[in-house]
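User: Quick sanity check before I run a bigger batch. Here is a single chain. Can you write out its predicted 3D structure?
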Amino acid sequence: MTADSLGELQQRLQHRFSDRRLIERAVTHRSFGAEHNERLEFLGDAVLELAISTLLFTRMQHVPEGELSRVRALLVRQDSLHRIALRLGLSEVLRLGEGEARSGGRERPSILADAVEALIGAVFLDGGYDAARALVERLFEGVRLDAHLQEVAKDAKTALQEWLQGRHMPLPRYAVVRVDGQAHHQVFEVECEVAQLRLIERGEGASRRAAEQVAAAAMLQRLKAHP
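Assistant: Done. Predicted structure follows.
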């Protein structure tokens, strides 16, 4: 990480930090040292939820609470934040320990998604809620908030089960294949298998249930793309 790369990141964020230490910490993984981004991630997660909730409340005025909650969950889940991280080029500026870097941490979706939340938390501390909310709105600027998104936001496991049952196929099998991190900050990787079709998809999440939803969504997308 260089001064130039941090400057370019600030340009992409459209926020110039008054306190440079905040952006440095936001892109620092715990494997790098004691001054890492987990506390900023905790804060950024809360700010992101509030900013997205406000955005949905304003722009989807006739949608009931339950559907708003599902759409919000879709927007703030790991794969959405991972795509934002790739768009921001975060893998190029992450500070990782040598072992984490060698094991592919720079491309790991969970690490990149966490860094997005940490940056949101850093902007909140540096410029206040209005600056953080404006950042969130820029990051999600291209997302369609319409009936299509509401349909996608339906519970993925239920949708996959209905898809398979409608074609007289057995239910999918879910299995945890990997758990990383300490007890208070774990990342689960779950495998979703449709045995009759010999298909397997995987998903990551902060809990087994969340990871199962991501894996089910990936499987459903694959089945619909290649029925």
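Strands lie at 173-180, 187-194, 199-205.

User: Great, the batch can go ahead then.
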